[in-house]
Amino acid sequence: MTEPLNAAPVAANAPGLPEKQRRLIELDDAIAKIRTQIATADLTRQTQGKPIDPVWFNRARTAQRHLYRERAELLADGSGWHRRNKMKDALIEILRERHDPEVWAELLAEARARSEAEDL
Predict the structure, then answer these.
(1) Which of 39, 40, 34, 43 is nearest to 62 (CA)?
(2) Mean pLDDT to the nearest integer, 7-36
(3) pTM of structure
(4) What whole-number distance in Å separates Cα of residue 41 and Cα of residue 39?
(5) Fewer CB within 10 A of the terminal residue: the chain, N end or C end?
(6) 81-98 vs 101-117: helix axis angle to the nearest 10?
């Protein structure tokens, strides 16, 4: 069984996963870890009245910014997920134009039923 603490590394090392998705999983995990550390430091500050170390806080926020930037660059290259979503949008637009509103409503209902059945 995958433990919660190593779920992201296990997911990132799944066989057949594209490198881009693998890196996005790693980035999201690293960002979440930094957010948790900052939140923990803030809770400690609130409960114990101790200030957060400004040098540490600045380093944590800087690291987080760099991770967000790398994530944005991966998503902005126009391939992978974005290209797939553009393809889906174009396909939906074509199909919507070719079907009358009643048929389109039936198609949407069937698609919703299938996605709920498959838990998408």
Answers:
(1) 34
(2) 82
(3) 0.56
(4) 5
(5) N
(6) 140
